[in-house]
Amino acid sequence: MTQVSSLEEKFLQVIDAEDKIEPKDWMPEEYRKTLIRQISQHAHSEIVGMLPEGNWITRAPSLKRKLALLAKVQDEAGHGLYLYSACETLGIDRETLLEQLHTGKAKYSSIFNYPTLTWADMGAIGWLVDGAAIMNQVPLCRCSYGPYARAMVRVCKEESFHQRQGYEIMTVLAKGSAEQKAMAQDALNRWWWPSLMMFGPNDSDSTHSEMSIRWKIKRFSNDELRQRFVDMTIPQADLLGLTVPDPMLKYNEAKKGYDFGPIDWDEFWNVVKGNGPCNEERLNARVKAHENGSWVREAAAAYAQKQAQIHNISKTA
Amino acid sequence: MDQHRRKFILQWADNAMILGQRLSEWCGHGPVLEQDIALTNIALDLIGEARYLYQLLAKEEGGLVTEDDYPFLRKEQAFYNLLLVEQPNEDWAFTIVRQCIFDHFHFHFLMEMKNSADPALAAIAEKTLKEARYHLKYSSEWLIRLGDGTDESHKKMQHALHNMVKFVGEAYEPVEADVAMWQAGIGPDLTKLKDKAISDLKQVVAQSTLDWPNQQFGRTGGKNGSHSEHLGYILATMQYMQRSYPGVEW
Ligand SMILES: [Fe+2]
Ligand SMILES: [Fe+2]
Ligand SMILES: [Fe+2]
After folding, report:
1. Is residue A4 scored above 80 in pLDDT?
2. Contact criterion met (CB below 8 Å) for A205 and A257
3. I want to staple A199 with a disulfide (CB 3.0 to 4.6 A). Which of A195, A226, A312, B53 is the partner?
4. Where are the alpha helices (DSSP H) in chain A?
5. Averaged over A57-63, what is the pLDDT?
6. Which of B48, B145, B249 sits opposite A299 (nearest CB)?
7. If you average pLDDT over residues A88-94, what whole number do you get?
8. B43 close to A (CB below 8 A)
9. Which residues of A touch B48 (CB under 8 A)?
10. How far apart, in Å, do the first and last CA atoms of chain B sit?
């Protein structure tokens, strides 16, 4: 048996035994590449995801809401931080990852390319977008790669808090004035389909899935997760007295779940390819923050180096 | 309620509120992820501190108003914050300089307030002092790091300090409410506080290798409701929802 194939066999044994692969373990190059792509894409999504909600921090309607929103967006920054760290264990540094984001080489979740137009969007995003994220991410807590799995445990706890907070915003609006209720319905109308798109293409058109499932990076297919999300969310919408914008939506007794209308995949690919309503704004905002911050990062590094020198001199003296 | 005490509390609360609002503009746009998080922490602390004070006022004013009425329904001239805290973020240099100037005042102010004869105010000072001590450490370290970093950072910081120094003094200039509260044993002696706070601040500036600008004139007015043009824009944004949809719950 060749060296590589025995290593690969051992790797697959660990996977099959539901044990974790750790940074120093041997792993197939393709496994590493898949994880770097997925984790960095996830990290970028957290960071870009700060922007649409960040929009409303200065306009939040009460002190309580302002504090909660500020803390939520800060949590997303924290998620980005854990995920960049998890990604760095695979042998790539944050600077390189950020460059991939800024040059458009790396993707982030397309949902963040939609605009936040009213306060109700803070409710709809928490409820639907964080809700869909949880559906995607809970299985990742059992991902075969240790650092990613552990980061996800922490992230999922906070995401479910965000989801409840978002739903609570929707509840208040749905019970509020006619204007507030209309605002909530309008937000649901705009965020519903993009939220369903968050699970990615239909299984029949998904390119990365098979190996990811074999390696236990992914546990469920896009369509399975999407179905679960719909089944979970429709009763919540009913409870709010709001209507999901899908005339074909219907409970299917036989499958004990909802049938829903076709997703507009042209829109999906259009947004993925950069032609969504806010793609340029989001990326420009990230690039601008990074560029405006370069003198700060350089100065901090220069100062740290000076301090280290002083420290060394005093040690040797 | 005693009008001097009410105004004194609003001065304190509005400082925290307006600076917190300013800092929250950075969220998502910081120079590096760790500092984005750190600055947001300070914003959260300050808005939280303002909230304690607005809640206290709302309670004392007999439940006819809520904590939200103070930040969201007052007009410009009924805000009593320092001119310092309403100044724009501009860049990281201005933000840090503004913060460091404020934190020196804020920390020493709370140190005095925790011994206030007014137990409700002393309790709020006690609760927020630990955070303010951390803010002071954070902004002082950044002032030093950037002052003594690269040539570019030194220049930017010197420029920011040059522009902001005129806003240092207002905090320590007593207005009527400050005098009344000092005489009642509730508020601090601002002249004494000034000596401590400014000498600490000058020490940090010296350590940062920046020059303390030689400036004679200080700007005042905020504590009496006479503000810079910036406050109107802050309120236009901050109060947008409450003004557009009056009288509903969020
Ligand atoms: Fe997140
Ligand atoms: Fe996430
Ligand atoms: Fe979240």
Report:
1. no
2. no
3. A226
4. 3-16, 29-48, 50-54, 63-88, 94-102, 120-124, 130-137, 146-174, 178-197, 209-214, 222-240, 265-270, 279-292, 294-316
5. 98
6. B145
7. 97
8. yes
9. 67
10. 29
Task: Place B62 in a pLDDT band, splitting at 50, 70 and 90.
Answer: confident
Using N-to-C axis directions, what is the helix angle for A94-102 and A279-292, rounded to 10°? 140
Query: Integer distance in angstroms from the first to the last C-alpha of chain A?
Result: 58
Question: Which residue type does A66 have?
Answer: K
Are residues A133 and A160 in contact, defined by beta-carbon separation less than 8 angstroms? no
Residue type for position B139 = S
**What is the distance of C-alpha B214 from the center of its chain?**
23
β-pairing verdict for A257-259 and A250-252: antiparallel
Q: Which of A63, A68, A4 is nearest to A30 (CA)?
A: A4
CA nearest B30 in A: which residue?
A289
Cα B215 to Cα A141, A270, B46, B146, B219, distances in angstroms:
59, 57, 29, 22, 11
Do A45 and A112 form a contact (C-beta atoms < 8 A)?
yes
Quick one: what percent of chain B has pLDDT higher than 90? 97
Dihedral pair phi/psi, residue B14, rounded to 5°: -65, -35
What value does the mean pLDDT of chain A take? 95
Specify the amino acid at residue B151. Answer: D
